[in-house]
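hiii so um. not sure if this is the right channel but i have a protein structure encoded as tokens and i wanna go backwards to a sequence. like what aa goes where. can anyone help
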């Protein structure tokens, strides 16, 4: 049977998603489980989005708006763009696929970091494209080294800013310097999945940088807006580039409820503020608690923290499951001593620390 499968698919390592709550309850016979594994919004979804879903649900007998007219217009207004600068996707995951299919020829290559969002590499390989990676430096994208690694074959460069799973970021001056004198055959994709949690002044905003540059920005409604289950994200780029991406995407790639919810969520400033405040408070609570346990971590500008357990991270992950706390095991990223924890509600963070202390035998 295997002979029927394309050669590049045989070599693909599947993406391992965060373990679901129900599965963990079932497998371990637990009543209460908290999930801090997929960088979701632990406050829930935007209430305005939920109201819009309720209103839109009776229209699901109709196909969604193939052009995403209303949502694109709202996004364009928000960032002072035109709707033609925007492509909607079934999450950023789908946009990664659309971008690779639109721009990377058979013989061309994708360049990214060795420890970053795994889907860049997986989707490239599924599409039969080669990927080169550059090691992070102090847990950060090393743009200087990446520039050195660009060859005549390099077509796309994926930069996650902030990076997942490290939570680190590339400052504005570094990014601007990097894109300024790139060879003309190279396109940069800036993945800003966590752009709403930033608490530093020198973070670059891709929507302000893409004009006159070979740059596409990706954003998602999965994180701060709490719509991960609906699957919706968007890409911003030059109209010439986005027009070709529109040819590649499926006509009804973003469902009707997702479009309605995302448009409403964009108006939900209260929810965004509440989320931002909760993440920041949670972050400083977790920093303090970890420090007092003598545990080191990578300072983060996102809604998650990479934590050095100083022992086998996979074992810690399993022991945490038994305590009813799902974190993310970092084996897939080659960070064997680490786990990544999403910043949750105050109670979730306390529960995490309580379980972590028990698992690591700390007081
Ligand atoms: C850096 C990064 N990009 C993209 C995604 C995927 O986002 P979406 O849910 O929009 O597919 C994630 C999700 O964890 C991520 O961490």
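sure thing!! here u go:
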């Amino acid at each position: 049977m295997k002979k029927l499968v394309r050669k590049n698919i045989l070599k693909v390592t599947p993406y391992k998603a965060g373990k679901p709550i129900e599965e963990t309850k079932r497998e371990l016979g637990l009543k209460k489980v908290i999930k801090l594994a997929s960088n979701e919004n632990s406050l829930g979804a935007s209430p305005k989005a939920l109201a819009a879903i309720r209103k839109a649900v009776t229209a699901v007998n109709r196909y969604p708006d193939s052009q995403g007219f209303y949502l694109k217009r709202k996004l364009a207004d928000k960032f002072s763009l035109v709707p033609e600068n925007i492509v909607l996707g079934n999450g950023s995951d789908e946009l990664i696929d659309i971008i690779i299919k639109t721009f990377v020829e058979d013989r061309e290559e994708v360049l990214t970091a060795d420890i970053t969002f795994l889907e860049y590499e997986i989707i490239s390989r599924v599409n039969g494209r080669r990927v080169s990676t550059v090691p992070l430096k102090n847990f950060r994208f090393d743009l200087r080294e990446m520039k050195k690694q660009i060859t005549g074959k390099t077509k796309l460069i994926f930069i996650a800013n902030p990076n997942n799973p490290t939570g680190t970021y590339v400052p504005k001056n570094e990014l601007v310097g990097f894109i300024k004198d790139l060879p003309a055959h190279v396109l940069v994709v800036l993945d800003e999945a966590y752009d709403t949690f930033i608490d530093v002044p020198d973070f670059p905003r891709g929507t302000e940088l893409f004009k006159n540059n070979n740059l596409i920005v990706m954003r998602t409604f999965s994180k701060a807006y709490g719509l991960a289950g609906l699957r919706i994200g968007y890409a911003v780029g030059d109209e010439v580039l986005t027009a070709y991406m529109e040819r590649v995407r499926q006509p009804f790639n973003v469902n009707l409820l997702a479009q309605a919810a995302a448009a409403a969520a964009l108006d939900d400033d209260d929810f965004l503020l509440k989320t931002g405040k909760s993440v920041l408070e949670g972050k400083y609570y977790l920093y303090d608690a970890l420090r007092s346990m003598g545990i080191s971590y990578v300072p983060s500008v996102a809604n998650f923290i990479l934590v050095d357990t100083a022992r086998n991270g996979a074992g810690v992950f399993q022991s945490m499951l038994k305590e009813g706390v799902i974190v993310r095991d970092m084996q897939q990223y080659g960070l064997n001593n680490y786990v990544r924890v999403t910043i949750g509600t105050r109670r979730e963070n306390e529960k995490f620390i309580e379980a972590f202390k028990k698992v690591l035998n700390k007081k």
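oh and The pocket of pyridoxal-5'-phosphate is lined by residues 39, 91-93, 117, 160, 164, 191, 193, 220, 222, 228, 233 (CB under 6 Å).
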